């Protein structure tokens, strides 16, 4: 899973960063101060940066400033699997899950409005995005 909260461990591709040398580019582990990481971290970082759907979702999540969010479920490992086996990064991924935690508003109406807003901000992809407020999942 990819954590998006500023207090959480920031992983690859969580935001786009403007470079003083040029256009906006995806974030990397090094951008977040990580200098020592494993080969698996590098594979994850590289794979997720190549998945335009993941990058778009992460960019919108950052823009929307969701509290305590992460991108998880099958879209993350499937992206890595696809890269390791020579497939297009988003090949076979039917949906992505964007989860946030907001205990200050547990209404289904707000959760639905957040999902609709995020989906409206995304380019048209042939996948679904499920946005859930983890704080209300067990109500």
In DSSP terms, counting alpha (H) and pi (I) runs of 4 or more, how many helices?
A: 4
Cα-to-Cα separation, first versus last residue: 23 Å
What is the subunit arrangement here? single chain
Largest sheet: 4 strands, mixed
Query: What count of structural domains?
Result: 1
Shape: globular
Helix content: 25-40%
Can you walk me through this structure?
This protein is 35% helix and 19% strand. It is an alpha+beta fold and 139 residues long. Strands 1-4-5-6 form a four-stranded mixed sheet. A two-stranded antiparallel ribbon has the order 2-3. Helix 1 crosses helix 3. Mean pLDDT is 80; it is low at 5-26.
Please specify the SSE layout and strand pairing:
Blueprint: E1 2-3, E2 16-19, E3 22-26, H1 39-50, H2 52-64, E4 70-72, H3 75-84, E5 95-100, H4 108-121, E6 128-133
Parallel strand pairs: 5-6
Antiparallel strand pairs: 1-4, 2-3, 4-5
Helix pairs in contact: 1-3
